[in-house]
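(Deposited chain)
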Amino acid sequence: MARETKAQEAERNEAIETLRRFGVVPGATIYTSVSRVARSGMSRLVHCYIVCEETYNGKTTHEIQDISGLVANAIGWKRDHQDGGIKVSGCGMDMCFHTVYTLGQVMFPNGGPRDKSERRGARDAGDHEPSGGYLLRKRDL
């Protein structure tokens, strides 16, 4: 991987902080959709969304926010200029999961508290999830 410049590092850190303000914390659900698949099947455009809770004058509303640009900046992947989706290369697996997992690894590099309701296997033990990739949930739209 190429070294990032100070400007790229600042942009990545700003994107991570903005995502945290939007509510991307351990246990948050990231909603994903694929808008386009390359003819070769080797890449796709992925969009990421989160539901934000806002309170104004005592009324709570839920707004859907497109966080694709922030996710792309945080994980260092490119975006499609026409569609706005994150360009994800590869095939043979769930590329939306790959995107959300990578975001979790970038945002929580040291892991974090494990959600006790979600065990990944018989070897699971303890309250700390070592991989930040598993701290976010993914749901397809």
Remarks:
- DSSP finds three helices and seven strands in the chain.
- The mean pLDDT is 90.
- Residues 6-112+126-140 form one domain.
